[in-house]
Sequence to fold (334 residues):
Amino acid sequence: MKILAIESSCDETAAAVVEDGRKVISSVIASQVEEHKLYGGVVPEIASRRHAEAIVPVVRQALDEAEVTLENIDAIAVTYAPGLIGALLVGVNFAKGLSLSTGIPLVPTHHLRSHIASNYISNAELKPPFMCLVVSGGHSHIVMVEDYTKMKIIGRTRDDAAGEAFDKAARTMGMSYPGGIELDKVAEKGDPFAFKLPRPVVHDAPYDFSFSGLKTAVINLIHNAAQKGEELKKPDICASFRYAVVDCLSSNFLKAAKDYNVNKLVIAGGVSANSLLRSTLKNECDKLGYKFYMPDKSLCGDNAAMVGSQGYYEFLSGNVAGTDLNAYATMSIE
Fold:
């Protein structure tokens, strides 16, 4: 079964053709990062306009690279939530029009579920149930994946997402958007114990995260030093901050796995490309005898291949939409 997948939830216009939920035949991404760098983050209006300009050539290229036509496509999967509403609407309306004109079934697909599904592409043997840490610029969740389309949130951030904290800390240090990637690279040369940063805890919810205080702590550290004319070593700040964020993420994730008696752990989302998070969880899982899975780094960011993977399982479960499908800026993964 071949799925044509479309993704436009933020600042990447993407299309892919995926077979049977696991095999990527083609994957095309048109990124807007260079343009949004000028503003230090994604500008929703600009993102929507660029999606509208790119979506036709991107979809056409995905079909051409897969050497298929729409006659060979069994379903069209599209990200409809969550994300920037204007950006989502471009993808959703394009997919609706394509479905209406061709009669190909339309499959609404959740963005975070798709991130989890990126692991099905990278790990052929992976099947639910398992517990997943989903970490990105806008989301930080611990999710129990009971089946391909049945999920339950175990923990979540109460304020900033981990990726957002990384990007804001990086911007304070003068790094360009998206700063989290550069921060990760600079941190490799620093001392993670150079600065003592807090580990926020949500006392009434042991699996929940809170990164706002940690983000503020590192920003205040940088600003206070600047006001005193002191020069801090950027690699040490990056390493200390990265270590603190990864410590919070991995500690809660491993505690949840132990308490729920789960020994199959998975990570997903843009921050799952973070080198320290990957190595920390792999080492801890090896010590505990847990199975650990992570997506290929090329699949950690937003892409349509992951949408095609999750869309396949949504289609098998009977999740098909009509022309009344709408986009939603927020929606629970459940």
Summary: The chain has two domains: 2-116+300-316, 128-297. The chain is about 45% helix and 20% strand. The chain has a mean pLDDT of 96. The CA atoms of residues 34 and 295 lie 25 Å apart.
